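Supplementary Methods. Inverse-folding protocol.

Structures were first reduced to a discrete structure-token string of length 197. This string, shown here, constituted the complete conditioning input.
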């Protein structure tokens, strides 16, 4: 087993520190100084590993998405039916392990930067494309292609919308409610799916 390089460990620590600060402060309140303080480092160390604040935000966005990606893959590998594949994507995105207000605040804050930052926009496009592909892996076995495409878009829009509501502080939402709303949507989109009853 290859040992992790100190440089890679330090970069990951700084990315995670940036995510923590963004969860607490949002992007506007996240500074290199605050990230350095969270990581127990100096601003100079942060700048040694990241070219500037924009580069750090890009890497923080990757870091915020990496745990989600791993969780989706794990759930997809455990899925035995087309419906379980669709539900794996939904549950990984809305499960109680991740669907929490601090994560919602950080993600919404990063997404607000997407229209102004081409690199963040490119990453967001990759994330949406991956979700669409994962959803289609199950939906194509349950619906005709055009209906599957529409259902995948609707599901991803529902997930995004639920994250936006969480990010703006909607106190009425939690993981259990978000998952129920998603299951209710699937009852309409997949009326013949017996797993929903």
């Amino acid at each position: 087993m290859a040992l992790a390089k100190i440089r890679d460990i330090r970069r990951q620590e700084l990315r995670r520190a940036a995510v923590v600060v963004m969860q607490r402060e949002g992007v506007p309140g996240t500074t290199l100084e605050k990230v350095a303080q969270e990581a127990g480092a100096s601003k100079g160390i942060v700048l040694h590993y990241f070219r500037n604040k924009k580069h750090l935000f890009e890497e923080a966005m990757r870091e915020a998405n990496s745990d989600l990606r791993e969780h989706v893959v794990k759930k997809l590998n455990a899925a035995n039916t087309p419906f379980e594949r669709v539900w794996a994507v939904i549950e990984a995105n809305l499960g109680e392990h991740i669907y929490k207000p601090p994560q919602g605040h950080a993600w919404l804050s990063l997404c607000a930067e997407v229209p102004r930052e081409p690199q963040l926009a490119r990453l967001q496009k990759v994330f949406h494309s991956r979700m669409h592909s994962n959803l289609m892996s199950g939906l194509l076995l349950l619906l005709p292609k055009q209906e599957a495409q529409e259902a995948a878009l609707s599901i991803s829009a529902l997930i995004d919308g639920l994250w936006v509501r969480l990010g703006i502080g909607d106190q009425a939402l939690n993981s259990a409610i978000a998952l129920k709303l998603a299951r209710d949507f699937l009852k309409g989109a997949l009326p013949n799916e017996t797993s929903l009853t």
